[in-house]
Amino acid sequence: MKLISSLTLFLSFTLIFSCTSLEEKPAILPIEDFFKNPEKINFQISPNGRYYSFLAPWNYRMNLFVTEIDKDTTIQITFETDRDISKYIWANDFRILFINDKGGDENYRLYGVNINGSNLKCLTCIGNVRANLIDALVDYPDEVIVGLNKRDPQVFDPYKLNIVTGEYKLLAENPGNIVGWMTDHNGMLRVAQAILPNGDVDLLYRDDENEPFESILKTPWKDSFDPFFFTFDNKMLYAISNIGRDKKEVVVFDPKSQSEVKVLYKNSLVDVDIIRFSKKRRVLTSAEYYDDKKEIYFFDKKTEELYQKLAEIFPDKSISVNSASLDEDKFIVRTYSDKTRGKYYLFNTENEKIEKIAEVSPWIDEQQMADMKPIQYESRDGLTIHGYLTVPKGVQQKKLPTVILPHGGPWLRDVWEFDPEVQFLANRGYAVLQMNFRGSTGYGKEFWFKSIKQWGKDMQNDVTDGVYWLINEGVADRDRIAIYGASFGGYVALAGAAFTPDLYACAVDYVGVSSMFTFMETIPPYWEPLKPQYYAMVGDPVEDSALFAEISPLLHADNIKIPLFIAQGTNDPRVNKNESDQMVKALRDRGIEVEYMVKENEGHGFLNEENRLEFYRNMEQFLAKNLQSISSENK
Fold first, then answer.
1. Would residue 487 show up in a list of annotated catalytic residues for this protein?
2. pLDDT of residue 352
3. What's the pLDDT score for residue 21?
């Protein structure tokens, strides 16, 4: 089947910067342009294709709205004032489900509301119970399957939940180590994934819900086998696997023979991330993966033709099909690039009419945004590290004040897309380097495995090597380099300040880990079943205590001599507030300049718009002060 890709040519660094002519220097844009709530986002179409929904701000909070397509009438159906709604789904033609938490505590509660705004009901408000959706049960309009840690905070049991009345029924009792459940195409609960005491994964299976689960595949923790959905006869599994191979490939697995029976797609360069199917036509449609940009491999001719048609209409944009009616005659299409959050369109396949329905952030002018260019460099031990470099428009591309921006996770990766942080920093005159250090996902098992127990060591070296590469290429000013990151990226920022104290002029830590010991002691209870894997990948606080002491920035605070800006949410369940408190105290006790922002109504990152804006205003001033950027010069 033909491969549709963005066909990005991977230019060498010298070629990227061989152009001597300068583009016009953009104006310094308001900080709100980058970080205020979008005008409209997250469009979804109803199963019957009569309506579409979206999120939009009301009283500075993202709320749900529904538009009837034929009548072009829109009504607001939620009126949340404390927290944004970020995730929702259509449960049936007349009812929508969404989740929300309190102050960032991540104890998500599931709510239901009719599309006219009536019968708003919290369906899982049971103390500090956290809910996750297992199956929307499209063929059973009034029911869904949810996971609830009601019986034990550490484990999630599957329940069948009536989304109108709120009544629920226990489907199975989690023995304590199951971390994932999966249904077949009839909504029957037939697959589970359990974590064994050594961190390995046990895949459990049953033919029907009257039988007990039995083990069909034990996977070493360093391998990956992710079942996505059943084949359409409900007999086998479509999965993404790297068992016996370096890259994750699309496979068919037979539970009866307990073996892989076919490889459907593989890519020699990167892992496959996700596979998709058509519920109506009961066919596998596509596989997606990231090289420099998102790429799609098509199993299905009709899906391929749809994307080809869209590519002809939007030749200079990346395209995603976000939502479809059950009849697959209407689709929500989103276009985007590195310089725009994009636009949403309603595409009717019957008359091939495509209609623009919203621009996510219409105040963003693409012509004022900077190019996000793929780059690569070599680590000190010979690994190829991929990443992205964004250089401000309209300035000489040499000896620039620079922000190093390592991603969180750490088992995630940066991708080519509109990143408001990157564009904000570039608009303020900073070059921005993002690197997919070892352990970043998508580059194969061997690349990932090189990150095992390498927090603060080889993973940190990959970041450091990227800084020196950018200096040697003449882009970064050696004396004006900052490091900023969130979550694991915040840890990297602290580690950079502690372990390479002469490399950076300042650092920004946003909800980052300061001590491996205290971090491991305060993980959320529902992560407990995953602890064996975490110990294997990061380290055991007892057995690896010497390693933890070596890589904890808090225990090396004496090395830090640069100004820091630290931000933290009080209710953060992942990185406890003490991680920031203890780092701030250790530095202030030594007379090191630390700006500390704490928000009582936030968790792992600032969701509320006013808190986001305050954070980035403070960060802007902090960077300008310590890097003497053009932002401060132009004000």
1. yes
2. 87
3. 53
Pick the catalytic residue from 53, 379, 487, 580. 487
Query: Which among 572, 580, 629, 631 is annotated as catalytic?
Result: 572
Q: Which is the catalytic residue, given 514, 604, 629, 631?
A: 604
Q: Is 101 a catalytic residue?
A: no
Indicate whether 478 and 599 sit together in one domain: yes
Q: Could you say which of 239, 270, 299 is where a domain stops?
A: 299
Q: Which CATH number fits the domain that encloses residue 596?
A: 3.40.50.1820
Task: Tell whether 511 and 615 lie within a shared domain.
Answer: yes
Whether the model clears a pTM of 0.85, i.e. scores above it, the answer is: yes
Residue that terminates a domain, selected from 236, 269, 299: 299
Asked about 556 being catalytic, the answer comes back as: no
Provide the domain limits for residue 231.
Answer: 197-299
Asked whether residue 323 is domain-assigned, the answer is: no
Under 8 Å CB-to-CB from 140, ≥6 apart: which residues?
A: 187
Question: What Å distances lie between residue 196 and 157, 215, 226, 260, 531, CA to CA?
Answer: 18, 12, 16, 22, 10
**pLDDT tens by residue, 163-187:** 998 999 999 999 999 999 999 999 9
- The count of domains in the chain is 2
Instruction: Give the model confidence (pLDDT) of 269-324 as tens digits.
Output: 999 999 999 999 999 999 999 999 999 999 999 999 999 999 999 998 999 998 99
